[in-house]
Write a structure and sequence with these properties.
Number of strands: 6
Helix content: 55-70%
Distance between the termini: 47 Å
Number of domains: 1
Order of helices and strands: EEHHHEEHHHHHEEHHHHH
Shape: globular
Strand content: 5-15%
Structural class: mainly alpha
Number of helices: 13
Largest sheet: 2 strands, antiparallel
Radius of gyration: 22 Å
Length: about 375
Amino acid sequence: MRRTRNLRPKARGQECPRHTDTLSITTFIIISIIKSVAVVGVLLTAVAYSVWLERKVSARIQNRWGPTRVGPFGLLQPLADGAKFIFKEDLTQPHVYKPLYIAAPMIALVFAITSISVIPFGNWVKVGPWGTYLQITDLNIGLLVVLGITSMGVYGVALAGWSSNSKYSLLGGLRASAQMISYEVSLGLSLVGVLIMAGSLSLRDIVDAQGGVFWHFIPRWNIFHGQTLAFFIYLISAYAETNRTPFDLPEAESELVAGYHTEYSAMKFAMFFMAEYANMVTVACLATLLFLGGWHGPIFGPPILQAVMPVVWFCLKVFFFMFLYVWVRWTLPRFRYDQLMAFGWKVLLPLAVANIVYTALVVALRAQYPGRFF
């Protein structure tokens, strides 16, 4: 049995040969397993060191040192924290509903990690006689898959709040459910303009559509090419989706002790923590792919460096978004809950709809009058 894959053109306005790679089913499975293990390993490492990054940046903002004791610059602190959670006593309150109480953190973590499977990290690479995408699997509806998987994570939070049989946890779960559903609408609508411009739901096609420049020097990234408003709507909605400050109402310690994970400890609590940071990485990857041109950037140097540069550009853009996450958290105060919901429904939603109308109008005018609109 053979598996044949055709590659799409690299970028709008650029010629890119159609690669056809024929692999035996055994080779395809082996390559897929290697890519899956590598991507999950990189994701979990990024999750661990996102915590280190947050502690370091917040310490810098507050004129402190942050982690310094474990390893040089505190770089081994994530390993110490992981060991602590593994060996810490796991307390389960007698009043909880155990099946869902145990399943809730697993649901949150599994959906957070699974969504990375359709994220492309670079273009076509060839190692010896084999070639493959820098992506676990390439789907022509990749964006829908990511949105569908990440939206399922709310079940873990809601079930944690209900199964804990605690009023603080229940209120946190209800807040999280209402907040995620409300801002999911604005987040989804903010991406419609990108889809109209790219004409595809494939994340790779969306990145390819952002290749090249206009006006001779400005990258054709969506953030510069008519989707600036959509970018900021997506960014704000993503903060709310991942329950980050100033939208961390589901776990507001001044009101709900710790919110939906009040009754959790040890590794179960760590799984919620890992899910939050894994979702942050996924959101940062999506923002990079949809608005900042993915792996597109200046390519220079010898052939080996040119092969690595796209992945370097992608990682730098993702790091920028992760830094922005931390910066905003330690800069802005928390909203009131009524302000949170009013902002989502009365401000972001109308702006997202207006952006769709504007983008559709511009695309229609470009088709009607070619060459008059950049």
